[in-house]
Write a structure and sequence with these properties.
Shape: globular
Low-confidence stretches: 5-25
Number of helices: 12
Largest sheet: 8 strands, mixed
Distance between the termini: 4 Å
Mean pLDDT: 91
Number of strands: 8
Bound molecules: iron/sulfur cluster
Helix content: 25-40%
Strand content: 5-15%
Order of helices and strands: HHHHEEHEHHEHEHEHEHEH
């Protein structure tokens, strides 16, 4: 039963509070369209905290490419939200000065999808690791692909749980010895782009933190894509993954765009995901036109984002009566 005082507060002592008062802007507020924008820049991104990542960590390359992409896209600060997962990559929450949200482990994609549905004017970008995205959050990854939620997922894929000091992750190679599988990982690794293709994602790419310029361009393309976009990024964990090193990737990676790959060819993209002697990076698949992003399928969001809609007509009284 709701305490009488709380109920009175919520219901305004049975007098209906004009709810639009709760949503009306202060008299001196400047309408969004007339605001002077502050654009994301090297200076605006600078946080007082320097990364705590291990020296040589691949996160530094990803971080640089991501910041370059944000700066080159020239977006107003207030239009961008970054949602962080939990892990070494998620610690980037402290190192970027932006609007952001540090989510629970495995729930970054779900949080980002909700933010986009609440205010679809925002660019919503997720920064998370392979454990967060393809382990605890795998169902959210698949749902985001299927729903074509207009968010960008940047996965720092180091093929190990780094923050918890080196356990097998969903992308660890089969047979790889880690703290949690001293006799070798028994399972096949997840194929993130393959799963994304079968779940009908509309933008799927892969990058390498050792190629910052190339990764910057891929991240920019992903952010500009309307609909769900994934950039799975090879990110060497210098401390806990002695197998998938910079040298390992440098010997193997090649650029899809230099080898005639057509990102509109879904079947070719799928075949490319199984290459293991050489590792393709670049845009595997992009579908610009087949279906709209999730927020555009809701008629009630066509007029304006949910956060800009009045709640004056919503009467919660019957709900509270039922709970009391
Ligand atoms: Fe980077 Fe690995 Fe160190 Fe984490 S544990 S900061 S992923 S090198």
């Amino acid at each position: 039963m709701l305490p009488a005082k709380l109920k009175a507060t919520l219901l305004g002592s049975q007098k209906q509070i004009p709810m639009n008062q709760l949503t009306s802007m202060p008299k001196d507020a400047i309408p969004m369209d007339e605001k002077q924008h502050n654009y994301i820049s090297k200076k605006s991104l600078a946080s007082p905290y320097f990364p705590t990542w291990c020296p040589g960590c691949g996160n530094f390359g990803v971080w640089t490419a991501f910041k370059n992409a944000l700066i080159e896209l020239n977006m107003p600060e207030e239009d961008v939200v970054i949602v962080y997962g939990v892990g070494c990559s998620g610690n980037m929450a402290d190192f970027n000065r932006v609007y952001g949200f540090h989510s629970l482990h495995g729930r970054a994609i779900a949080s980002a999808s909700a933010i986009k549905m609440a205010n679809h004017k925002l660019k919503v970008i997720v920064v998370a690791g392979d454990g967060d995205s393809f382990g605890e959050g795998l169902n959210h990854f698949i749902s985001a692909c299927r729903g074509n939620h207009d968010i960008t997922l940047l996965v720092h894929d180091n093929q190990v749980y780094g923050l918890t000091t080196g356990q097998t992750s969903p992308t660890t190679e089969r047979g790889e010895k880690t703290k949690s599988t001293p006799n070798g990982a028994p399972e096949q690794p997840i194929n993130p782009i393959g799963i994304g293709l079968t779940a009908d994602a509309t933008f799927l790419a892969r990058g390498f933190s050792g190629e910052i310029g190339h990764l910057t361009q891929i991240i920019k393309a992903a952010i500009q894509h309307e609909g769900f976009s994934l950039v799975d990024m090879f990110q060497p964990c210098f401390t806990f993954n002695k197998h998938n090193t910079y040298a390992y990737f440098k010997e193997r990676v090649y650029h899809l765009e230099d080898h005639g790959h057509n990102p509109a060819d879904k079947f070719a993209a799928y075949q490319k995901t199984f290459e293991s002697d050489k590792l393709p990076i670049g845009i595997f698949y992009e579908d610009k036109n087949s279906r709209p992003p999730m927020h555009k399928t809701y008629p009630q969001l066509q007029k304006s984002p949910l956060v800009e809609q009045s709640i004056a007509e919503i009467n919660m009284g019957s709900v509270f009566d039922r709970l009391s």
